[in-house]
Design brief:
The chain is built from 8 helices and 15 strands. With 314 residues, the chain is of the alpha+beta class. It has 3 domains: 103 residues, 2-Layer Sandwich (Gyrase A, domain 2); 119 residues, DNA-directed RNA polymerase, insert domain (RNA Polymerase Alpha Subunit, Chain A, domain 2, Beta Complex); 62 residues, 5' to 3' exonuclease, C-terminal subdomain (DNA polymerase, domain 1). The chain is flat.
Length: 314
């Protein structure tokens, strides 16, 4: 390599990123040559982003036919439900998009159940198909529906919103990177021996290659630094007019508290108008569309609101 010190300016870096060794989902990535001191500067930043900020997929909630909660047993299943869920959490998934999807497991015993038995929606794929999930005895069925979502980092089960009765929330680890270690070595370019060389040891879950993970982590860092150099300011929300405590109290009144006939109050509530605030935010034409409300009913509603100082828009 021809030595040209101008080529190695910190303002115009020239270095290579290469995968020098790979073994399945584990690879050695080398970045060189870097100006002295930039080995740890880049190495530490990339390591933190690789472990904490890369998006991935994970099971967030599931439904097991015949099971209402996780602290129970399931007839014919060797494992209890808690152990089954812990095994399901270890399923690693990849997808060609970031949208939520559904995985299904429907098996009949006797059977040693593995992740290979899972049926995926189009676009989703289970990576670790050999993962043991459960053991089912003869004549018994196991039917599970799992919701897969994309995210970043770790999400506790208590933070996950359930969609239906019987669903069980699952602690979700989204990060596709399992392990990152790096070391900084000295390297030379021509007669200079004070350059840095970063050697990464990266293990992923198989949903992304180590080299692609480094590139995505770099894109995240670029976006962060770009905001410093060329900041994008958030749009200011339109300042809302101040409202007095008395007006706020009126807005909170329910339709029943307006002394309307019970028939009208019930119709309004069924139509989605539960408070004075709901009514004030719409107009007469929209309210008149509510089932069982006629012209006379609208007049009564207007009169009741007027007593509270609220005018219904035309």
């Amino acid at each position: 390599m021809t030595e040209n010190l101008n080529d190695y300016s910190v303002m115009n870096p020239i270095f290579t990123v290469s995968e020098v060794e790979t073994n399945g989902s584990r690879s050695t990535i080398v970045i060189e040559p870097l100006e002295s001191g930039y080995g740890h500067t880049l190495g530490n930043a990339l390591r933190r982003v690789l472990l904490m900020s890369l998006p991935g997929l994970a099971i967030t909630k599931l439904s097991i036919d015949g099971v209402s909660h996780q602290f129970t047993t399931y007839e014919g299943l060797k494992e209890d439900i808690v152990d089954l869920i812990l095994n399901l959490k270890n399923i690693r998934i990849k997808s060609n998009n970031d949208e939520a999807g559904i995985l299904r497991l429907n098996v009949k015993g006797p059977k040693e159940i593995t992740a290979k038995d899972i049926e995926c929606e189009a676009g989703f794929e289970v990576i670790n198909k050999k993962l043991h999930l459960a053991t089912l005895t003869k004549g018994k069925n196991l039917d599970i529906e799992m919701i897969v979502e994309s995210g970043v980092g770790y999400k506790l089960a208590k933070e996950i919103e359930l969609e239906s009765v019987g669903q069980i929330a699952v602690d979700a680890l989204f990060s596709p990177v399992i392990k990152v270690a790096y070391r900084v070595e000295a390297t030379r370019v021509g007669s200079r021996t004070d350059f840095d060389r970063i050697v990464f040891d990266i293990q992923t879950d198989g949903s992304i290659s180590s080299l692609e993970a480094v590139k995505k982590a770099s894109e995240i860092l670029i976006a962060q630094f770009k905001q410093i150099v060329d900041p994008v300011l958030p749009e200011l929300e339109e300042e809302l007019p101040a409202i007095s405590p008395e007006e706020l109290e009126v807005m909170r009144l329910t339709v029943e508290e307006l002394d309307l006939p019970t028939r009208i109050a019930n119709a309004l509530r069924k139509g989605g108008y539960e408070t004075v605030k709901n009514l004030q935010a719409t107009n007469k034409a929209e309210i008149s569309k509510v089932k069982n409300l006629g012209g006379k009913s609208i007049d009564l509603i207007e009169e009741a609101l007027a007593k509270k100082g609220v005018v219904l828009a035309d």
